[in-house]
Structures are given as structure tokens and as C-alpha cells.
Design goal:
There is one protein chain. The protein is an alpha+beta fold and about 260 residues long. It folds into two domains: about 100 residues, no CATH class; about 120 residues, Gcn5-related N-acetyltransferase (GNAT) (Aminopeptidase, 3-Layer(aba) Sandwich). It contains seven helices and eleven strands. An eleven-stranded mixed beta sheet has the order 1-2-3-4-11-5-10-9-8-7-6, sandwiched between helices. A hairpin with a 4-residue loop joins strand 8 and strand 9. Helix 4 crosses helix 5. The N and C termini lie far apart (about 50 Å).
Length: about 260
């Protein structure tokens, strides 16, 4: 069953996750998040909802971002972004860093049946430091960025030890012969949406159904804990096609622009 577009847009709008270790700059017009340095994108504009002229609001946001002293800002142009923002950013030297399909599917009737992987894989939820580190390091290799420090790993493991059994979500890691080869996270939101994030497969393990295995595990978890919609922002060149074959429908695209702040 096709989901109402307004529900998908609302869930996408409510997506941003901000860790306790981040610093924010927020006004009615925008939200800028300064993540720790070990994040691939340390400075991100996650919300842009100007009430007045868009060009003025863009310049105000960029001026605020320059105060952090970093070389660039990653600006998320979301489904609810006002028109004209991409052109304004490109006029300031911005380039598209990532294009994402916003994909969703109804899971209110249960877990969809997906083809099994072509290899045998062991799936573990990251509730201990070793598994959390395996997932974090695999994600860093696939998406870029440095490895997270030990104190972050320990903190994430403590949080996940409570969140996973409580139904709030977590990260699942797939192992082949003891080697982590795929991972993906899920957050079960209060509105019944399961937000799927950071699905990754090691380069040498692709094409064998491991992304589907991790996807299936997250969908099973989401349904078990009351979610009725699965939402994911998949890269158009990699996970997007897999998700479409798994029954997800596209509701638009979002782009992340790298904006120079020099």
C-alpha cells in the first residue's frame, strides 16, 4: 500500500539526530550542528525554514557557520526546503556532495519477505564495545571520516545496551567468518516510523545480498517494536536501487551540498 506523501515528508523533516557531544546554533530560520571532529561531516545545516527573504537567510546562516572556523559547511537541501536554495548555494561555489532518494514502504502488515543473502552471515546487534566499534569502523571505511575514539565507542555501547532491548533502535552488524562485512542502524520513532540509516557493505563483500540481510533484520526489529512505516534516505547510485527492489517507493530526493566557507 502506498503511503501518504505528507506522512513521509513529515517523518523526513523530523529526521535529524543530534548526539549529546554536538554543539548547535539554532534560530527560527535554520539549525546548524557542529559534530565532533571524528564525524565525516563535522559542520552540517540540517534545517532551513526561513520566514523572510531566502537570500538573506542563506547569507545569515553562512555567516554563522563561518564562526566555527571550518573550511566548509554541509548544507542539507531537504524535501521541505524553499525553492531557489540550490541556485543560491551554487552561486557561492557549492557542489553536490551526495544525492539521496527518500524512500519509504508500509510495514504495518508485517515484515516483507526479502531474498536471503548468497552467503552465510552472522548478525549481531551492537550492544557491546567490540561490535559497536566494528560497525563504526566499517561505516567510516565506506562513507569516509576518521575512526571514533574509545570514549565515544564506550558511550554508544552503554546507550545501545539499554536502547536495543527497549525498542528504541540500534545498529546491527553482519559478520562473515568473524569479519564485519555489513552494518546498518534503525531508530523507532514515536510516530510509528522506523528510520533506517547508515547501511553499508564492505567493498569486497558487495553483490552477495548482505545489504538485504541487514535491511531485513532492521525491518523485523521495527515491526516487532510497533513501527508501521520504514523510511530511508538511500544514495542514488548504491543503496537506492536495492531498496526499490525491496518494495520501497521514492517520494523525492534530497541533496547535501558542500559549501566553501573561505
Amino acid at each position: 500500500m502506498k503511503l501518504p506523501a505528507e506522512r513521509v515528508v513529515a517523518a523526513s523533516k523530523a529526521w535529524p539526530w543530534i548526539p549529546d557531544t554536538a554543539v548547535t546554533a539554532e534560530t527560527d530560520d535554520y539549525l546548524i550542528v557542529r559534530f565532533p571532529d571524528y564525524f565525516a561531516h563535522p559542520l552540517v545545516l540540517t534545517r532551513f525554514t526561513p520566514a523572510g527573504p531566502v537570500p538573506d537567510a542563506v547569507e545569515a546562516a553562512l555567516a554563522r557557520a563561518r564562526g566555527y572556523g571550518l573550511a566548509r559547511l554541509w548544507w542539507m537541501v531537504r524535501l521541505d526546503s524553499p525553492p531557489g536554495v540550490p541556485e543560491l548555494l551554487e552561486g557561492r561555489g557549492a557542489t553536490v556532495d551526495v544525492t539521496l532518494d527518500v524512500l519509504a514502504r508500509d510495514i504495518g502488515c508485517g515484515v516483507p519477505e526479502l531474498p536471503p543473502p548468497a552467503v552465510s552471515a552472522e548478525l549481531r546487534w551492537g550492544t557491546d564495545p567490540a561490535t559497536v566499534r566494528d560497525g563504526q569502523e566499517l561505516g567510516a571505511r565506506v562513507f569516509g571520516g576518521p575512526a571514533a575514539p574509545d570514549d565515544h565507542i564506550a558511550s554508544e555501547a552503554r546507550r545501545a545496551e539499554k536502547d536495543v532491548p527497549a525498542g528504541a533502535g540500534g545498529t546491527v552488524v553482519a559478520y562473515e567468518g568473524g569479519t564485519p562485512v555489513a552494518c546498518g542502524g534503525v531508530i523507532v520513532a514515536a510516530d510509528g516510523a522506523a528510520l533506517l540509516w547508515r547501511g553499508a557493505v564492505a567493498e569486497q563483500a558487495r553483490g552477495r545480498g548482505l545489504y538485504r540481510a541487514v535491511l531485513s533484520a532492521r525491518l523485523e526489529y521495527a515491526v516487532r517494536h510497533g513501527a508501521t512505516m520504514a523510511l530511508v534516505k538511500g544514495r542514488v547510485e548504491t543503496s537506492g536501487p536495492i531498496l526499490r527492489r525491496a518494495g520501497f517507493e521514492a517520494y523525492g530526493q534530497e541533496r547535501i551540498y558542500a559549501v566553501p566557507l573561505g
